[in-house]
Specification:
Two copies of one chain form a homodimer. By secondary structure, chain A is α+β, with helices and mostly antiparallel strands. The first copy, chain A, contains nine helices and 16 strands. A ten-stranded antiparallel β-sheet of chain A has the order 4-5-7-9-8-14-15-12-11-10, with helices on both faces. Chain A has a three-stranded antiparallel β-sheet with strand order 2-1-6, with no helix packed on it. Chains A and B meet through strand 1, strand 2, strand 3, strand 8 and helix 5 of A and strand 1, strand 2, strand 3, strand 8 and helix 5 of B.
């Protein structure tokens, strides 16, 4: 059972999820003395049609009406993560006694420790969203139609979770390439949802609320306006969306994609905008894929918590982090990023690349 | 010229340092269309004796009194980083007009943008500390005596910087292995110093001050006491130091090394403790090296700012982050770490490994 632990110094929560060490390619260096499950090492792609039994039973799928669940015939398939970092409360409370004891042994605040150490079961949802039955490995290999379908599935999944008791926020993300933390090649997203807002999004909402209070407008709307006037950091624009490299990019070639009109939650997006978003995002990401071989990037959806009505100060967006440099001791030890490519240089190069 | 940029949403500063893209192995993926400087690609190790001219002139060295500076005969050598992320104010103000104009072009808050975007020259010090003239690549390959000399050099360097105007904090760190961000094999540390306290250390000092206010004792001293009672997370102990895997470890096999008696700054450490620290740290780190091949880890010194007298609530320490899993979209997008190895499991395995 994964558990949450609070860092007593920084008041920062960490998820300890030992089952995740069992994933194929969980470690990037060869682990000495490790036992490798031979079944895992040799398994075929668990996300390809025909191998549906290799994943936990699906939570949801876009599929041919005639087709059976957990069998071929799907376009997008959503399954629980086999190695979850967050588990549903029902699973947590149903865990066998042995599991509970083992979990307590691993999360051992003893009476004397309780003023310092704090832990809790890691309750939530951890899904995998398989974008396409085709064994492709990058967003650029999807057709715009396939990407739109995958975004539609994410939208539906978020709408369903919004109604669940105990769930208040979801983070959807995609790891593409080994250097970006992908342990399975077949293109997929993950969705993690919990009762509290994830720290970075909570920080963004707080910063944006401060700006709104002072200036009476959405900070993201203001940034979009400034970026369109300045132009030097803009990568691409469509009718309803804009992609630019943010002024204080943490990563080389970092790129954000935002709706040009104010909107605080992804899942409320009008269906007619899905194709526009899929087309713009796909071609902007394909530019990043053309820049580095092999491609390695993360894609993250930042959207409002479920409990807030549409809010005036927060603006949903997608952040793309190419993983072509390695944050090292300075970054991890200081909390300050060093980026060797300015967003102006990055955007100029990305604009030049022809990718459709 | 590197510049600092403020993220308007998260109020987080980022260093944009374009010269760092020129480093050999600056990018982990093959950059398409990139121009590679053939001299850089083929150069011999710039940190080995005989190649002293390959680095900027040394700032400081522990060397044979008879030997000339910038020539063989040294034990530990400190040189300015050739690709700095922070530059001295004198360098910044002496930069040619073209440089300044280029820097402005890259950091372009226009009048309309000033309420949103903020930037400043990245002023400070960025040194490289070459641990040994021998071309070794890991801490475990050093003798305890060599590591003690290298720690002594860091101590002297911090003492010197403490007296410099405009410098208030230093972060010393080591990147070992390509997966940990090392771009040169020859073992070395880096030192970055600036006028303000780096965010993560500022956060630690703030959290520790809160605990001190409530409980009247140093949080780190309390943690050491609890860890010694519990024992399950302790890796090793010497007369004056302890190494343990912290309760809320962010990384698999993360390990901290602290003085057992309260001390807020590394550079005030009694000389007679250097050998003890070097011996304990070297063998504890060698355990991590034995666990994964090839070794990849960062080592970070967290110590008090220079302007504070010895403080009761902060406790200097060394953090070691093995880089054997890759923080992916969830970690970068949520600000929350997922660690697949509990510190209890990690410490138990590290205790078993015999490394001297």
């Amino acid at each position: 059972m994964p558990n949450l632990r609070r860092d007593p110094i920084l008041d920062r929560w960490v998820i300890i999820a030992e089952d995740r060490a069992k994933r194929p390619r969980a470690f990037t260096s060869r682990e000495n003395f490790a036992q490798i499950d031979p079944d895992e090492a040799e398994q075929a792609c668990p996300f390809c049609p025909g191998n549906e039994h290799e994943t936990p039973p699906e939570a949801f799928a876009l599929r041919d009406h005639a087709a059976e669940p957990n069998a071929p015939g799907w376009s997008v398939r959503v399954v629980p993560n086999k190695y979850p970092a967050l588990v549903r409360e029902s699973v947590a409370s149903l865990a066998g006694e042995t599991d509970v004891l083992r979990s307590l042994a691993n999360a051992p605040p003893m009476p004397a420790e309780r003023s310092v150490y704090d832990s809790a079961p890691a309750i939530g949802v951890h899904d995998v969203i398989i974008d396409t039955p085709r064994h492709v490995t990058t967003v650029g290999e999807l057709t715009a139609e396939e990407f739109a379908l995958s975004l539609a599935a994410i939208r539906l999944r978020l709408q369903a979770l919004a109604g669940e008791t105990g769930i208040n926020h979801a983070l959807v993300f995609k790891n593409v390439g080994t250097a970006a933390g992908a342990t399975l090649d077949h293109l997929h997203s993950q969705l993690m949802a919990a009762g509290t807002v994830f720290p970075l999004v909570a920080g963004e909402i707080c910063g944006a609320a401060n700006f709104y209070e002072t200036h009476g407008e959405c900070l993201f709307c203001r940034m979009i306006q400034l970026e369109r006037i300045n132009g030097s950091r803009v990568v691409a624009e469509s009718a309803a969306f804009i992609a630019f490299c943010p002024f204080a990019s943490r990563f080389a070639y970092e790129m954000w994609i935002l709706p040009k009109l104010h909107a605080s939650r992804f899942e409320s997006m009008a269906l007619e905008n899905l194709a526009d978003l899929a087309s713009l995002a796909r071609s902007a990401i394909a530019k990043i894929e053309r820049l580095f071989q092999p491609p390695a990037y993360n894609l993250v959806f930042h959207t409002s918590p479920f409990d807030s009505a549409a809010i005036e100060h927060y603006h949903w967006h997608i952040e793309v982090f190419p993983r072509v440099t390695i944050p090292a001791g300075f970054e991890w030890g200081s909390g300050c990023a060093v980026n060797p490519v300015s967003p102006e240089t990055a955007a100029a190069r990305l604009r030049e690349i022809d990718a459709h």
